[in-house]
Amino acid sequence: MITTYPASSRYSGDHGWLQYNFSFSFADYYDPNNMNFGPLRVFNEDYIQPGKGFGTHPHRDMEIVTVVISGELAHEDNTGGKEILRAGEVQRMTAGTGILHSEVNSSSTEVANIMQLWFLPEAKGLTPSYEQKAYDQEAMVNALLPIVSNHIKGESIVTIHQDLSIYLSKLEAGKTVNFSQAPDRKIYLFVYEGDVTLNGTNPLNRSDAARITEVTELAITSANGGTFMLIDLPGIG
Asked: How many domains does the chain have?
């Protein structure tokens, strides 16, 4: 089953310094029927104004993945992690037993467009940790590039404490990529530029998403060119 969610179905708001879009219940948005998709608990697309951001705040028992689409984000936490995250880089933070961190757009001129994802971990009480890596954006072209995984290894892949993998792809016009999956797993797909069509009958445009179950073969095509994220998830939840 492929269920599509248009961009307009998200919960969106504007705080001036922050424009946000929530795909699942988060903060002041609560829908008991939209709490998660498997272990994927949060999928937010944010636009953070120059010099603005989130001050120091706590997290616990969550795997938090941040991908910068454009601009940059300064991260600092109480484990000693202190980095600038830019387009072409991915960050994983294990909140575990508890972590304090801040996230601020470190540019004085450019808006930061970020995707932040929260996943339920495989176990509670993990040791807090932080990992950040750059990936080859050219390797995304007409391919599925893994950037986060608990079992796929590589110099540009960050590890995560959950049975999942995150892929990025940039399809040229008229191109197709295919993804095969076990029948007891799930796929979450989000388009962040252009257009894609799933298995020939499910069109998606910018900021549209699909939640996919009971599909073992997925053909992803693009008529005009499109960039998307695909998350391979366990079937739990």
From this structure: 1
